Amino acid sequence: MRNFLKLLLGAACCCGATGAIAADMGLPSAPPAPPPLWTGLYVGANGGGAWDPTGGRNTNCGSACTAAETALAGAAGGLQLGYNYQLGVMVLGAEAEFSASSLRGSYPALDGIDTLTTSVDYFGTVTGKLGVAVGRLLIYGKGGAAWTHTNNSDFDTVENLTFTSNYWQMGWTVGGGAEYALSPNWSVKLEYAAIETPNKSTTFASPTPLFFTAVMHQQINQVTVGVNYRF
Q1: Which of 7, 29, 34, 130 sits 20 to 30 Å CA-CA off 40?
Q2: What's the domain range around 43?
Q3: Is residue 15, in this structure, part of any structural domain at all?
């Protein structure tokens, strides 16, 4: 028993001496955990397609000229600026995005007299983000406020007049996507987002004193691919 205790004491002394020698020699300890991959400020660009299945329709026209519907379609793309903060596998963020668009469509009205043309040339969003990081892959959802700029033109073949309106409209947006980190700084993403604006009463004016009022509505869908650079 006495010999066994001596053996344990000797082993302990040896281990202590070895640790002291390693410390004196400045040998590296275990490397620190890497910083969260997704934390930081980022900027990026995106591009893709957009459509509005409602045609930017007039929702309260009775027998007026803009009741017909068609789908608007076009390209859309722009820039985004945001910030992410990673807590374990959870990623919280906020993002602002501004896009230009060629979203456009024309169709004859139900009265057979008028033709309505609607286009959305700009829209922007400010959203909060919530995601889950799986290694280099980030899966996220987003939602917040949206703004759209719309141009409307109505040509009356009987009066040979064009009535126009244009306006900014505030609404909401919701969407989600997946982003993959190519490196600590660069990532690529695929995203879907929907923008909806409430009914808006707008006046269609002409070069003459003639005008009419319509209640317009928009429902924009967008699918984009993009790239981000994190600082």
Answers
A1: 29
A2: 37-230
A3: no
11 backbone dihedrals φ, ψ, rounded to 5°: -65, -40
pTM of the complete model: 0.78
> What CATH code is carried by the domain that includes residue 149?
2.40.160.20
What's the N-to-C CA distance of the chain in angstroms? 63
Instruction: Report the chain's mean pLDDT, rounded to a whole number.
Output: 83
Q: How far is residue 164's CA from residue 154's CA, in Å, rounded to a whole number?
A: 6
CA nearest 146: which of 110, 98, 178, 188? 98
H-assigned helices in the chain: 2-24
> Is 129 buried (19+), middle (13-18) or exposed (0-12) by CB count in 10 A?
buried
Single-letter amino acid, residue 112: G
Give the C-alpha separation, 148 to 99, whole Å. 10
Rg (CA), the chain: 30
